[in-house]
Amino acid sequence: MTSQTRTRTPGADAPGRTAPVSADRRSRQRRRNLWIYAFLMPTFVLYGLYTIYPILASYWYSLVEWNGFSSQQRFVGISNYEAVFADPMFWSSVRITLVFMLIVAPLRVFGAFFLAILLNSPRLPFATFFRTAYFIPVVTTTAIVGVVMRFILDPGSGPFAAVVRLLGLAPIDLLGDSGTALATAAVVYVWKFFGITMIYWLAALQTIPRDLFEAARIDGANAVGVFRYITLPMLLPFLLIISVLTIEDCFRAFDLMYAMTAGGPFFSTEIIEIYIYRWAFAASIPQLGFASAAAVLFGVLVLAVVALQAWATVKSRAMQKGQR
Amino acid sequence: MTRFSRRVVWQSIGAGTVAAALVACSGGDVEPVAEEGATAAGGSDCAGITWWDHFGGLQDMHQEWAAQLSEEIGVPIEYTYNEPARAVEGLQLANQSDQLPDVYSNILGLPLPALIEAGWLHPIDLPEEAVDRLPEGTFVEGITMLDGDIYGLPVLSDRQYWAATWYNSEIAEEVGFEAPRSYDDLLTALQAIDEHGEYAPMTLALGFAGRMQEQVDDLAQAGGFPGYEGLRFDTGEYNYDHESYIEAIELLKTISDNGWLLPGTNSFQIPDARGRWAAGNVGFFIDGPWSPGGVRNLNADHLPRMATAGMLTPDGDEAVITRGAPDPTWFIAGNTDCPEAASELLASFTRDEYQVNLAEAMDQPPINLGVVEDADVIEPYAWIVDDFQKRVFRAPQPVVRNVDVTKALAYTTPISPGLGDIVQGYLGGDITDLRGELQALNDRYEADLTQAIERAQAEGADVSRDDWAFPDWERGEDYTY
Known about the structure:
The complex is a heterodimer.
Chain A: H1 2-6, H2 18-61, E1 64-65, E2 74-75, H3 79-86, H4 88-119, H5 127-139, H6 142-152, H7 159-166, H8 181-206, H9 210-218, H10 223-250, H11 254-260, H12 272-282, H13 288-323
Antiparallel strand pairs in A: 1-2
Helix pairs in contact in A: 2-13, 3-13, 4-8, 4-10, 5-8, 6-11, 8-10, 10-13, 12-13
Chain B: H1 6-25, H2 38-42, E1 49-53, H3 59-73, E2 77-81, H4 84-96, E3 103-105, H5 112-117, H6 128-132, E4 145-146, E5 149-150, E6 152-153, E7 164-168, H7 169-175, H8 183-196, E8 200-203, H9 209-222, E9 227-228, E10 231-232, H10 243-257, H11 270-278, E11 282-287, H12 291-299, E12 306-310, E13 321-323, E14 330-332, H13 339-348, H14 352-361, H15 379-391, E15 392-394, H16 398-401, H17 405-409, H18 419-428, H19 434-458
Parallel strand pairs in B: 1-2, 1-3, 8-11, 13-15
Antiparallel strand pairs in B: 3-14, 4-5, 6-14, 7-11, 7-12, 9-10
């Protein structure tokens, strides 16, 4: 059958004889498109319901006063935005979010980079085992990691407390001290999501042609030289895109942070997501309009990073083309 | 045998997925099959009652009561417990998705009229015999009733305090201290435990700002603050920087700075703190009367070790506590399909049998405090309930004098940082100027109440700032209007 449809009949392109064939092809095309849309429909519907609609709704909620208890929503214009801007706790949460990102992103990007280089070495035994081991925290449920880490770091009875006692030190409450809670949460976050960045780097490393390394070795280059003059320049375009992806990822730390500290002690780990949650759900009288305004502003911040990501993607492609 | 091409298989899967998505998005309500007689007993469309509450110490009892009443009323009753810190969120989400439980406990922050207006509540049809079983003055217009209809059922006593000092009697015996009465007594006992070296002197739910706020409010009132929750009864003004607040917070600060809090206390939520206390290695724990009930759920072996010193005062004077009229404990959802069955369930909570069960669960005391005498409870629980009857007096309430006050209260907003946050920050060293911070808290509350009154006035409510002042209030006496 396939051979029949592919056989060209002499004169088939002639005017007047193409119509039935084209109509048949169009019909087949339509049927095929229909199935494509059918397959895409669940994604469209679910994405619309659970992503687009909540985003649009939050824009509306940010303009109303609503406690979530009553059906009455009072339009207040930009009052909620003014209130958010005037709230020092909002700016505190912005600062904490940015500080958290500044701690976490470099650790993830550069730490994962060096580990990926190590794990990519053909001389390293059990490389697959180590790759899996470093990736396991990524697939572990974040809230469970948060709860388990609270037990581990419990200054009274956890394994960390046992080590501290063994060293003859006084109990150290890493998560209960506002001076150390954010840094501790950041370290746990890095450990939890380190594997994703490592996979990015490992994928990037696979794009470097092997013959480049072989040629360098034939020319007498040592390991440092290969790294300095081949690996590093070839990975530079990826550094940009991986950095931006990681920065964007760092804004999503709600589940881990909430499970570990719930934003405390005394708001010292209250990232913007927890600030929004507190006003939307944890307040005695929820302030959904106010929380939505904060969420929209947070969205603008993330949007700025997405714009950076788009720029990084274009720049990265241009750099890759330049290398070729 | 029919053979399917790969395309056909994929097309079938695609079609199936679309169909499944359509079914899921259409709501797909599958009506539960009602037991025989359920419809007649509960209401025209009643398929069963859902019942949510946040009373941790009552879980087992309520599970059994649900089963018993299900048989009596003739409709299935599904009981669910929600942890207090999550209960508001649960109800809020349930309301927005039109899935409110038929019966739920009161943990909402809005005044009764605002809840009624928003459709959260259905009137409760209580038979006369049920009303008669409750103490006189249980139902108050604006708090549990509106225009003569009952909307909220109180089954827990209004005569209680929430910052009771619980201690481990075995540790007391071993270390050698008596039940403290004053702040200094407590500090002496904690020091003795610390010097003994084997036990942690104390723990608190310091990570839960709401609980810390309740406890400091109580300690301040017992210490002489002429009002409640920072608001003076006599003048109607906020006065969080009153000396009794400072003294109560400084007591906690001293305990914290001396290293007498169990390591980790700074971030403990209620289950964390109570769990450590119930383990038996902590000397003191500040908690409400519900502590024995909560402990029994965690480690019943700790119950015989529990003892209480009641409410401490700075100098060991007699504590005086004031509380308003009983708040609603139970509501019926405004959109319930089972108003009759739900009312029957609520009416059952006024029975002596339930009230005794409530006492024996050793959570918050029952509204009929008299049943505690004959209930099977540990001695410290009976003692503290007896103490409530001696020390807790009826407070004046703006809403009782003027129902329009609720219209202003509906416009108040949460204050952040609140008293509990300030306590947490001061103990952790993030706040150094306690008095200044408390004065700023006064200003935040005052500004919020003022804007709420102005908005209510603009809508025609007859309410003013004077409604909060009760110059004729006398400490240590039940207030009458």
